[in-house]
Amino acid sequence: MPDLTHVLAAQVPLSWYLILSVILFVIGAAGFLIRRNILTVFMCIELMLNAVNLSFLSFSHQLKNVDGHIYSFFVMVVAAAEAAVGLAIILTVFKNRATLEIDEVSSLKL
Amino acid sequence: MDVILFLVFAAIAVGCALNLVLQTHPISSALSLIGVMGSLAVLYLLLGGEFLAAVQLIVYAGAIMVLFVFVIMLLNAGGEKRPSRKVLRTAVALPLLFTLAGVAAYILATQAPRTEAVRFGGFTAGPYEVGRVLFTTWLLPFEVTSILILIAILGAVVLARKEI
Prior knowledge:
heterodimer; A: Helix Hairpins; B: 6 helices
């Protein structure tokens, strides 16, 4: 068992954060491609946006620059707008077709 | 301490993300996504993003996920039926995703700087620092954002009308 003070003083390399960001992005992309429920697909998009935000913040920490935080802030604003419009579209689709399967919404016309 | 916090919350984030993809019921996926966002907020704090951690919890885990859960409840969405036709899609998607992960890992391994470790408290961006840059350098994009939100509100109102 390693020394406790040694473990407590250890620090995390920047690449670990970036690797975590890649893992989260790939999981989100996998869900986007594989899942068929339109709500779950939408949530996977949010997961990918979060992963990108994490990499923005880690680069911002590395460069000692606040600009990454600003980008991340704008990503959050766009995600909020996207969620509002996207969920309204999902509500309309469900009202017209009574389904949430993306395979059955493959054509735009009814 | 940094390593322990990072490993614990990274494990929670990855586990919740896997749960999000693997669950069939949308409510379970939404709750897993809230777990991902909460643990990412802790990681933001470790990276010195105090303001972004608070915004992540308030806007993402609060507002956006409440919207999701509200829509799921409203649509009375059940679990996915008919898991057929899924094999071909998975067979095409997974190799592409492994390629993406491999390329990203290769780029990270060759390009990422590993001289400097992330030290907690080494760089802090609280509301003061973020606001100072946001309202000077990035003032025009910030104002354009308000137009974007106005358009989103109008779009949501138009889409939610009865006769579409």
